[in-house]
Amino acid sequence: MNNELTGKAVVPAQHRGELPPGFHDMLDDLKPIVRGAHVRAQLKVNTEMLQMYWQIGRTILERQGGEKWGTKVVDRIATELRTEFPNQRGFSRSNLHYMQQMARTWPDPIVQQAVGQLPWGHITTLMDKCKTRFELDFYAQHAVHHGWSRDRLTAHIRSGLHLAQGAAANNFDVTIPEQSEAATQIFEDPYRLEFTQLSDTAAERELEDALTNRIIQFLTELGFGFAFVGRQYPLTVGDTEFRIDLLFYHFRLHRFVVVELKTTKAHPSHLGQLSFYVTAVDRLLRDPERDDRTLGILIAESQDATTVEFALQSQNQPLAVSTYAGLPPGVRELMPTTDDLCRLAHEVLHGGAGTG
After folding, report:
1. CATH code for the domain defined by 168-333
2. CA–CA separation, 34 vs 32, rounded Å?
3. Which of 316, 310, 207 is nearest to 267 (CA)?
4. Which residue from 128, 214, 256, 298 has the fewest beta carbons nearer than 10 Å?
5. In the chain, where are the structural domains located?
């Protein structure tokens, strides 16, 4: 092709080594396609491996039941499989026992269940640490839903999340009966707040500071669906400004959630204050066409069940009461202070001078 003015040949941009318009936009479109294919391929490999493990475990169980095989036979199977497939990992003696345990625990095809979407390491953790089928299914479903790492899964099992979730005292069955079950499940009792490193004598502002300074950990403890809106969130009612300790929005339930913190025992007056804040959020922040009624939760140092029950029944706003577990008494005092750590760092940098 020639330039009409000069008569010289015009070389297309791509032939001159230049990139055509829209090239980088096209790359941006291609990259997610490749990443998505990689993820799907990894999931498919994991699914096929779990299906194979489950079938191996079931086959061994069936032969053991019919022919009374002992553990030495399983050891020999492990040896033979490793010899036949030297480049494939996973055929150790212990893994074969896990495969049998998996087939025994989940007799239906594994890939049709939530646990079938987890990595093998998560599944062995579940089988090692969970005592009942309810616990196995609870943690498998939550691990899939929340995308927990293996360490996070282990931490939740150790903390007894299946006992805490949905255990917070509340009045939802009366105030929001149609959504009572869903609302109940987003609150726990107790909340595990050891990461704050606070003692049992911490002030409320110290607890609030610790939670907001470690908001990602606190959101993880609260569970899936919570989005942080603000701390000491200001609301003007009449001619007075009030401040909410912590305000969240639950994007799955489409509700604001007011959190009030008390480092003392829960008291009926605390619920009166919380109810006022919930009403204010409903009137001033909630969009009636988009949001359901605001929920309030009081997280206190301790509670008396009967007092809390009576106090909840006297309120017409949907409220819950929970407690928190921090460091055991005396532990905070034994932890090194900032000065201790600075002094230790100085001694290390200077070759242990002054340590005697």
Report:
1. 3.40.1350.10
2. 5
3. 310
4. 128
5. 98-164, 168-333
